[in-house]
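Appendix B. Raw example, untouched.
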Amino acid sequence: MTGFAPVRGVDAGGAGGFAQAGMRVASHDVDTTHGPILYLEGVSVSFDGFKALDDLSLTIDDGELRCIIGPNGAGKTTMMDVITGKTRPDAGTAFFGQAIDLTKLTEAEIAHAGIGRKFQKPTVFEQHSVFENLELAMKADKRVRTVLNARLCSTDLDRIAETLALIQLRDQAGRPAGLLSHGQKQWLEIGMLLMQEPRLLLLDEPVAGMTDDESMRTAELCQSLAGRHSVVVVEHDMDFIARIARKVTVLHEGSVLAEGPMDAVQADPRVIEVYLGR
């Protein structure tokens, strides 16, 4: 945590100023000149006396691929809920870049600021084609009739084509999303998030229910996203984590139990006792 402290009390550029003025924070406003794109410090959340997060501190660097693991009840989902504004912390700070205070923004404002979250169960427009799903995700006006009647410029078409290639669904572009396999729907939802140009992607159990081949292709996708985006992957599949892990954070009882390279984390006696040994 040393070497970085978020700027508080910023008027025009900080989240507090945007929220008070009723303005929308955009992803290009994220200041990462000091490195981290996400900074959680001393975050605590309680539900009916149960501490879901207990003085949690975590830093994610700009362009980093981070894996988060831990047993059920470790606080992984609550952590993502805090980052995306679904849950307000009882204590602590959560900053996106140097100046955007996530605790002051709504879920919609956080999404517009550049944080995208993919839940475990994919949510796509099943009656619309893969292409149309990406188009719908891109447009500011979310009314289906308005979006599908709008003309796409060459830049929009290029973005959709690039995303189709990235998520390996170019040959499925005209197919109804409801006919895709489970894994393909997961990739499509990631593609829909990418159309919104997020700086930070939160992926919740992205390979749950996938075949081995789909898991391998998802690993390739996650690795290809790192650098262009910051990516946080929460997953229980340790084979998948081993394929993509650069740095792993282990949560237990709402706080960080261990953190470091995969080999070091796997050899940590505390991690073996509370998680890997189960």
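End of appendix B.
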